[in-house]
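Changelog excerpt

This revision adds worked examples to the README so contributors can see how folded entries look when concatenated. The first example is reproduced verbatim below.
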Amino acid sequence: MPSNRNGGAGCTIALLVVGGLFFGLPATMLLAAPAIAARIKFSGAPGLAPYLREWLWASIASPLLAVALVRLAFSAQGRLRSRSPVVTRWLGLLARAAIVLGVINIAVFVQLTDAGRTDQVITNGLPLFALAALLGIAALIAISAIDRRPKPVSVHEVHAATAEAKRALRRVRAENERVRRQAEEVHARLAKLRARDAGPAGRAAHSAGGRARDTRNDRRQSARPPLDFHALRTFHRESYLCADTAHVAYQSAQTSLRTMSHVVRRARIGTQIWLPTSRASRVARAEMRDAAAHLARSHGELRTQVDQGLGLVRNLNAHTADLKHEIRDNYGENGRAWFEALEQRITDARAERRASRFG
């Protein structure tokens, strides 16, 4: 999200600038209609009287244009459009449109008054409306930037994030324990397989070369029951799925960590901005500081457990890979056929993920 918001802000600013360059002057003339009508009314110049009715009609359309421009400047993820009720949203739009109208009309009226112009204001009016257009664009950009600022976090939100961190911490710790037990079981089975192959006959066969090793594996396959082979295959799949499921859980926890980090940062900024002018504000600030510190501790514990869990997954994956090769080397033709089929499935799955990512 932060990256998407920044990109949306840059896009909005670019649209405002480009729109100002191509359509700013005609739009500014319409937006400045109330100031021009007021200038004509107060100047009393006979030459301007015929234009008063036209500018009064234009003054009716100027608020509608201002509301439309402010509406375009707001992002769908901003404060006003995403979090406010309908009534508050429209009141906010009207208030901000009034600000834009005020900036443009004050600038135009002051310039007309200082120049003491009594001729048609459209004549040679490019500098007049150019400055007002720039001020209007600046006001729209400022309104858009303020609307995109993150909403101040409340103590309730910090407590809710802390509760979520504790729940995630319990899940990650349980996942870590499950991965640790699975890795220990895989390691025990590997040790058992290797101890069974460590006899003098096994060493002599290993030194005899590739053909002797294949002959030894075929003899082992014939000497070992098929149930052992199928049990190891099932156990390998269980280990693989255990690591895969745990990795998904850790990725979800990392997403929660990023959200919690954002909440912690906003909470700390809030404690720095608040001015303790009363006892109630000082109490609220202390409560926010304590809540932010508690969330920061939970956030740190969760990050530690996630990092530890990712290390456990790497360890389990290494043991599972060793088990895969042991099955291949110790169960003859059946083991080699199983190994090749497994490798092909892994290759196909990677190709499918790559295709879905880029296609």
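The second example, added in the same revision:
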Amino acid sequence: MQATATVLVYSDDSNTREQVRLASGKRPASDVPLVEFLECATPAAALKELDRGGIDVCVFDGESSPMGGMGLCRQVKDEVFNCPPVLVLIGRPQDAWLATWSRAEAAVTLPVDPVEFAATLASLLREKRALSA
């Protein structure tokens, strides 16, 4: 198992980025690697980091402004070769269909529920590891 996994977190809200970090902790589950967070407050910064590579999972805030995480997700799924899995944070459970439209692999509601978020992130990290093996 790799030593660490890099998780890109895009949100214009520093409190949301903090919720993601705190909900995950250093390791979201015992069978996945430690996580390191790369935080971006703008879509341009997130795209720049994705272009650099080395991202294992993305977490995009669907409520961000000026570009929501679902729009950014759809864009990166079209433009980034071997795009990492994306977990979208949505404002309401009813918005899950929009997360599907964006081609996100998973969605959880805001505010972040630590148990749900950690389990979902761990699942995406396991899938990523299985596909890389």
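Reviewer comment on example two: The mean pLDDT is 95. Strands lie at 4-10, 34-40, 57-61, 86-90, 106-109.
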